[in-house]
Hints:
The chain is 39% helix and 9% strand. The chain is globular, with a radius of gyration of 14 Å. It contains 4 helices and 2 strands. The N and C termini lie far apart (35 Å). The longest helix is centred in the middle third of the chain and has 11 residues, at 53-63. Strands 1-2 form a two-stranded parallel ribbon.
Amino acid sequence: xxxLPNAFASADGAIISAVGRAAELxxxxxxDPERLAHEISLLGxxxxxxxxxxxxxxxxxxxxxxxxxxxxxxxxxxxxxxxxLMAALTAA
Length: 92
């Protein structure tokens, strides 16, 4: 939680989502994604908390421009985010 905001220092911005299966994790050792987004914004970066895939896609549709590089960090299929985002961005 404390060191992760600086990992985004070179990014233009970040969209942070909910922690998957959060209820299975010890609250004392679980990332607080809303706090992370806030701490990234304190570094002068655009940062948003979007708990749902649809919110991430909508947010990126409004922010992304041709030539932008979008990086998705996930440990799984992320509710089909890759496919949904590609479909939304190529349709625009």
